[in-house]
Amino acid sequence: MLRFITADRLVDHPRLADSMFRDRAAQFRDRLGWEVTVDARGHERDAYDECGPIYAIWQRPDGRHGGSMRFLPTTGPVMVNDHFGHLTDQPLSAPDLWECTRFCLAPGAGLAISAALMQGAVTTGLGVGARRLVGVFDARMVRIYRRLAWQPRVLASCGSGRQAISLGLWQVMPHVPHALARPSGVAPDLARHWWRRGGLGGAGGDGRARPALAPGIVPAMAPDPAPRAA
């Protein structure tokens, strides 16, 4: 199932959070060779995990991480402006433009989980009122996005081999969840249901998502089935 969790609520899901940050270390440091920070617990974290992001996380039946993405509004600190300004003519900042980063898959996760995360991305975009998502990603991901029903427009690329990266822009449109339903096995209404069960409301005046419930109140989340054909 997809979990939509704000950074301050990760503490309520210790096993899921621990396995997500460990899988991020395994992917970005060990497999891709990126220069990232990994702490003594084996967690890959950076400053943007402290900026109040929303995470879309695929949770396996055993409660562990299967895949995840991270979302922040471009009206605040984001990687594309702070670290990848050389890929753009000017800073990318607008209330309806959110950044998606740290697309991570657990070892053995297949295309269906990749597609489910993309379903989570468009559900997040629609939920916070974003019309576009922007992200810098490993350039080899282009072939995976191409196999799915929602690929970005590549705005710029640089580097080569394992160090090749691309800047992409996704359009958030109402038809996208339906296009993603077949490859992900997650129907749009099920993704919206999981979004609501996460306690997330619309975007606030500064563009950051606001929990719909008071702090400390988490709606009960009954076990959901694995992705199924829409």
From TrEMBL:
<keyword id="KW-0949">S-adenosyl-L-methionine</keyword>
<dbReference type="Pfam" id="PF00765">
    <property type="entry name" value="Autoind_synth"/>
</dbReference>
<comment type="similarity">
    <text>Belongs to the autoinducer synthase family.</text>
</comment>
<keyword id="KW-0071">Autoinducer synthesis</keyword>
<keyword id="KW-0808">Transferase</keyword>
<dbReference type="InterPro" id="IPR016181">
    <property type="entry name" value="Acyl_CoA_acyltransferase"/>
</dbReference>
<dbReference type="GO" id="GO:0009372">
    <property type="term" value="P:quorum sensing"/>
</dbReference>
<protein>
    <recommendedName>
        <fullName>Acyl-homoserine-lactone synthase</fullName>
        <ecNumber>2.3.1.184</ecNumber>
    </recommendedName>
</protein>
<dbReference type="GO" id="GO:0007165">
    <property type="term" value="P:signal transduction"/>
</dbReference>
<dbReference type="GO" id="GO:0061579">
    <property type="term" value="F:N-acyl homoserine lactone synthase activity"/>
</dbReference>
<keyword id="KW-0673">Quorum sensing</keyword>
<dbReference type="InterPro" id="IPR001690">
    <property type="entry name" value="Autoind_synthase"/>
</dbReference>
